[in-house]
Structures are given as C-alpha cells and as structure tokens.
Amino acid sequence: MTPTRIPRPRRSARWAVGATALAAAVATALLGGPAPAQAAADNGLLCDTSPTNTFTLKADDDYIATPDGNSIYMWSYANEVRGHFQFPGPTLCVTSGQKVTVVLHNTLPEATSIVFPGQKGVVANGAPAQPQFDGGGSLTSLVQAAPARTGTVTYTFTAGSPGTYLYKSGTDVSKQVQMGMYGALVVRPDGHPDRVNSRVDSAFSPTHEYLFLLSELDPEAHLAVERGGPIDWTTFKARYFLINGRSMPDTLAPNNASWLPNQPYGAFVHIRAYDAATNPLPATIRYLNAGTVDYPFHPHGSDERVVNQDGQPVQGDSGQDLSYLKYDIDVQPGQSIDVLMDWRDVEHWNELTNPVPTNLPAITDQLLVGTDTWFSESPYLGVKNPLPANITDNNVCGEYYHVAHSHALQQATNYGAAFGGMMTVFRIDPVAGCTTN
Ligand SMILES: [Cu+2]
Fold this sequence. Notes:
By secondary structure, the chain is mainly β.
C-alpha cells in the first residue's frame, strides 16, 4: 500500500496543549487519511542479512528530517548493495558462531572505523584489531581505520553470544558517533532465530520483533561539522531524541516511509493481545543506547520481561531463570536490554468491563475537527459500542493504544516542544485479531 504522509506539527504550540492533543495526533497519525492502518510488514525490525555474513558499508553523509521541519546534516552508513545512505546504519543480523565480515568504504573527509563492542577476536585487515597511534604516540583511533575519502578496511569476527549489540565509529568517537555513525548488530542463536538467546523460554513471535535504538543529537554540532569546523562541546545540548533515527511522531510512520528516505526504521509496535491458544508467543523489543546519557524508557500499561542484557541471558550460574518483569527499562549508554512483552488479562477485562459505555465528554473537552466532533474514547480491546451521531470514529476493530516513551520528559520533546522525541505508540489488537487491516 502507499503510505500516507503523517501530518507534522508546524509550530511548537500544537505540541504544548497536553495529552488530549497528543492522543488526537497519535490517532490521526495512525488512522487518519485514506490509507488503512499499518500492516505487519510495515513495522518491526528490518534485518540486513547475507548468506556469507558479508556486509559492505559505505561511510557517507546526507541529511535527515525532524518532525518540526528541521533538516540535519549526518554521517552514517549505507549498505552498498542497496546503495542508499541511511541513519542509523543498517541493522546487521547474523548467527552466533558464524564468521562475519564487514567491509568499510570511507567517503568522509576524515578517517573512520568501526568497533564491535562485545565481539571477541575482531580482525582488521588481517591483523588483530587494536588501538592506533601516530608517530608521537597519540591515540588516533580505537581500531584500524579507513583513510579519508577513499579508504577501505575489512573487519572479521566470529559472532558471539546471542543478543543485541552496537557497532559504531572507533575514530574521533565523540564527534563521529554524535554525527550518527552507529547501528545495531543482532546475533541470533544458532538454529533458533525465534529466540532472544539460547534459552527455550526466550522464544518470541518472529513477526513481532522490534528494535529501539535510542540516541540524541544537537543540531548545532551537526551544523558546525557541515561547515567544516569543530564541535564546541562546551555548548553542546541535545535537542532531538530519537528511536531508530526518528523522533515522535515520525516514529509512528512505517518502515521505509517514502517521506523519510534516509530514516528507514519506524518504531511503531503492533501486537495482538495474549491468548494461550492463538497467540501464545510474546513480542520482543531490543533496546540499545547509542547516546551518552541514560534513557529511562517506559511503555504504558504493561511491564516487560528482561531476558537478556549486553548479549548475555539473565540467568544464574546453574542456568536458572532470573528474568524479571520491569516497568522502567533504564537503558544506559552502550547498553542493550532485550525484553519479551505481551498483553495479558484481556479475558478478565472482557468479562467485567466490555463493552465500555461511550459517554461524550463536555463540549469543552471535545476536540473539534471541521464540522465533526472528534472523540477518541477507546473501546477497550474488542467490543465497540455504537457512537453517537456526528462522531468521527477512528478506531478500526476495538484495538487499544498506548504511548511508550522516555520517562525523562525533556527527552520526549522536539527542540523543547512537547510531546515528541523519544516516544512511540504500542497498538494492541483484540484477541480475535483485526480483519480490517
Ligand atoms: Cu509515560
């Protein structure tokens, strides 16, 4: 289907009017316009794979868009097979125990490199990957680099313990990582791509796998680099907060949205309520922090089960399950946290509360759109009440929506305007599914 452009706020005031407007904007973004809500293929983790586990990345520059109309100069990676710049870099999916080759072609005006934190025995151009120094003994790079403009370096390693990892620049790290030089590496258990790690109880629904690669940027730093100058770190202040390279509401747009050509990865989560018979497997969300501060991420309405951290299962010495339910997923710089998430107790809700009476609020609490009264009261997972006349109903099949965002609310902004930034939406379809889309 052809994606519909999500309406964008043109001025911050639209985002400063509180939760009602946010809910309206979310619903409009998800359901407004002629296109139906997103199909499963439009969201979830997109993997770059290779039958030989060989990836060729081009370090390059281009621009990204922010929801408030800004255009920001970036450095990042293109998968040279596709040949298109993207931010963040391609998500590389490999299998634990297999040899991985990453060829880096540099087109940037300075040397660059890739480090693979968490991977052991990395080889660069045939030699052990190790820090590089100039003739005076000063560190020039954490690992062998590709020289400026036309350089190439080849890294190989054996994919380690299953989980989620960063790959990122190891050269002039503060600058180049701020400029966008990072991506995710997903290592899958051998023979069980449908598990987070080697444990049977880490199984997830393969069509409900999500990556939340969290980061932030200061456009002034990017402007300085665009003009060929240094970054003034004394005045650095992050203004945009990103999931997979996008800020809310762009996080809701589908993967490969045509209007975000350099930001192919969405962050909209679309699941179905747990049902032992028809939907027994949870979704998985892979949280990964490419920034320099903590991101206390939390979904609304449901805990998530932490099963893997920094590429290691959450278990005891004898293999006993130590996974735990958590509401706030506090992701620290460089850290990865893999969780399982499902939506439970729906049967209970159905018995006791469905259908929820639909009572119109006072006119002053209604959002007026054109000549319609636009009213978004949720039908509460499954049973829709008839709405009064002249009401625009944007709910498709009784599905439920929740925001999920950084609980550090300054990170839920776009250049200071709330709400935006590191925020997305979870959509939960009723147990019976949603035949409308
Ligand atoms: Cu919240």
